[in-house]
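job 3f2a | input accepted
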Amino acid sequence: MIVEHAIFAIRPGSEAEFETAFEQARLVIATSQGFGSLNLSRCIETPEQYLLLVEWDTLEDHTVGFRESELFVEWRRLLTPYFESLPEVTHFTHIASS
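job 3f2a | predicted structure (98 res):
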């Protein structure tokens, strides 16, 4: 399993609309092969910033399976209008938990 870490910078004043659109986008990504779960959090200090954590079975499930699919086109159609800038995306592998 890998974890996708994405930081979304949302246009100030459009946070509520982004969160509504994300509810639809969440349903889109959840149908992608290799999708495990996701968690969206809003920054306290910078309320127009969001942290998205998505669990994927493999890196390729995200970078190829999802990003090269029509699901990604729909995901971007729903969310891009609210982006101040393109998301910063990195991937992590699990080491430990408590």
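job 3f2a | Residues 10 and 69 are 24 Å apart (CA to CA).
job 3f2a | closed
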